[in-house]
Amino acid sequence: MLLVYTAASAQPNPFFDRPPGDLQPPLSDDGRAEDAEQPPAPAQPRRPSAVGRITADAARAIAGWQRDLNHRLATTLRAVSQDGLNPGSWFGVLGFAFLFGVLHAILPGHRKSVLVSYCIADRARVGHGIALGFLFALMHAISAALIVFVTVSLVEISLGSTIARISHATQVVSSLLLLAIGVVFCVLAGREILHHRRGNGACCHTAARIPEAHTPQGSSLEGATSGGNMRWIAVVLSTGIIPCPITTALLLFAVSVNAVALGIAAVVALSAGLGIALAGLAVLTIFVKERVLALLEKRTGHLLHAGVELAGSFMILLVGAVTLMVLV
Amino acid sequence: MIARAFTEFTILRLKKPAVAVALLVAAFASLAAHPHVWIDGFVEVRVDDSRIAAVRAHWTFDPFFSEMIVLDFGPVSNGTFTDRQIEAIRRNAFDNLRHYSYFTSLEINGRKIPVEQVERFRASITEEGFLRYSFDIPINASLSGQSTTVRIAMYDESYFTDIVFERNYARVLTEGIAPRRYRKRLLSEQHIIPVWGPVTREVVEIVFEN
Q1: Which helix (H) or strand (E) holds B91?
Q2: Of the residues A140, A312, B10, B167, which has the maximum number of CB atoms within 10 A of its CB?
């Protein structure tokens, strides 16, 4: 589900790209659809739940903080280009950029779903999670910087649409790579399930404590670990090649106001903020996963089993009672 | 027996994938994209003797996007783009929004009005140095009955762009007649966007008393 969605939702820039899966007929010069039929009646808007309202309010607040930081960052960069550098400028730019990176990562996006999925699917440790978070952020920034500086150097047509097209292409490539990685993950996971089913069915292990003899084909844990290293490097590379639009916009702005060095420093600070937020999420995911798996191993898991059996029995009783009441 | 088998299958045999799926669903809920462009907007509703002629939208962009457009389409003289620059901006950095209904949702007396074309596009630079787009959304709706309610929401369903209304979020411009009586207010509504989930959008509501 996640991998198909990822491949399908390489996010377009509305100012340059059509929406994904847009099957509407092309518009004529006067803006009317060339073979438009009577438009369907609009669906009634769905209303969010209480949790949804809280989430929406929180996202709105964070977006507002980002808006303010965006303005402050730009104002400071522009002031530097006009008045020159001073310690206050450095502090302002790096501080705003760092905070902006943290907030930007908290809001949905930046392939956090991939980070979470990987931490769930693979045998990631806390140190792994921290490294993953920072590497994700670093790759985002590096790819954005590369695209901006290559484009500025070589391309003389519209920068905005060119960068948007390059970003879109990298997202497609990334999605294909993730699909391939996901297939490999699924095959490995399927092999592990089959391995357990052929072995002792009551033998239950958490991801962190599989003894050597139970690794696939009896291979050593060291061998499995080195394969895991390759997997997470592949995940970081395939996801990190997507440039962050904010980073490209920040660098373009810095180039346009002749504050390139400060712009690069701002990107580094922004990446640090991004990395801290992503690393925190990775660590949280690993923590939650290990606790949930440990919980299911214990008596609580058996209680849950008994509870489900009881609920099932009660449902049968209820159906019988209601049916009898209808008949009599 | 069925419950036991189901429980064994899900908990004991597919324990890890089940946990993975549960956490994936939670993570999936946050898959929506975050804004990279910010717009402050306000609208002008133009009315004449018997109809609402058009809504003119004004969008003021954030500094990064503003600078990118200036970088792409040429220097600005006294805050003014040339007609040629405006045409280039319209073709290359605005027209595509027709696929997104120009980020505008329009209702008159509860009836949704599709936004398929706009007119009189202009691009300019404000005194503070930010890019501003201005464009007309033609309506031609009659003012009938005791009152006419117009609701205008501006938001990007892809969440690439975050749009909020300015403090002076709406004006009514009357042509050829005495000023009409109306009430206006800015509402904050939450609704669910397909795929992305719950979002907050601002809605300008103007009620004309006929």
Answers
A1: helix B83-93
A2: A140
Give DSSP secondary structure letters for A202-215: T----TT---GGGS
pTM for the structure as a whole: 0.66
Domain that holds residue B188: 32-209
* Same domain for B108 and B10: no
Question: Do B8 and B45 belong together in one domain?
Answer: no
ipTM over 0.90: no
Give just the sign of the alpha carbon dihedral B23, B25, B29, B30.
positive
- Among A6, A13, A15, A313, the strongest candidate for a mutation testing the B interface, having the largest count of B CBs within 10 A, is A15
Question: A256-290 pLDDT, tens per residue?
Answer: 777 888 888 888 888 888 888 888 888 888 888 77
What is the Cα–Cα distance from B23 to A290, expressed in whole angstroms?
12
Instruction: Using DSSP bridges, classify how beta strands B131-142 and B37-47 pair: parallel, antiparallel or unpaired.
Output: unpaired
Sheet of B51-61: strands edge to edge?
Answer: B119-125, B131-142, B51-61, B37-47, B161-174
Give B47's strand partners.
B52, B174
Residue of chain B with shortest Cα separation from A249: B64
**Residues contacting residue A98 through CB under 8 Å, at least 6 positions apart:** A269, A270, A272, A273
The per-residue pLDDT for range B139-189, each reduced to its tens digit, is: 988 887 788 999 999 998 888 899 999 999 999 998 776 667 899 999 988
